[in-house]
Amino acid sequence: MHPAFCTTSSSVESSSGTYVTKGQKRRIVPARSLLCYWAVQELGFSRVALAKYLGMSPPGVGYAVERGGKIAREKGCALIES
Fold it and tell me: Rounded to an integer, what distance in angstroms lies between the CA atom of residue 22 and that of residue 82?
């Protein structure tokens, strides 16, 4: 797993790894959305590959990318690569 995925959860108060869980759990959705946004927009992952990894549909990843972008702008979250 890319190091960026490991730090996503801390920015939205979720435990590491829970964003891979299926379902619309309120605590998980923001973390998963940021993960999708950064993976697709910043790291160049395809939506289809990410959808398979997360157990989501490609359109679901698309919506998550939009939500993640909004969350990143509103909360000032940024991807930090080490």
Answer: 28
